[in-house]
Amino acid sequence: MHEELGVHIVAESASRLGDWHAGTGEDAVHVGVWHIGDWVGSPTNRAPDEHDDIAWVGISELGGLPLLFGDLAALLRCLPEPECARRHSDVTD
């Protein structure tokens, strides 16, 4: 997370919600779905060559986003809306 978003995850606040698998061979996609309750830092797009943009959205908004893997939005809509996570901006690299 730090490499791409500039945040450090508080390990005790992370819980794996599930996995999503689609495709086969070179087209296979495997995604771990996590709930992160606490982190340090302010998210920024530290990999603009890999990501067009980053944004905070609710699960109910995912269906309207132009995601690379459309089925991922359907999977995430089935998950419970997480409680508000705490954010800290007092990190130094």
UniProtKB/TrEMBL annotation:
<protein>
    <recommendedName>
        <fullName>NUDIX domain-containing protein</fullName>
    </recommendedName>
</protein>
<dbReference type="InterPro" id="IPR015797">
    <property type="entry name" value="NUDIX_hydrolase-like_dom_sf"/>
</dbReference>
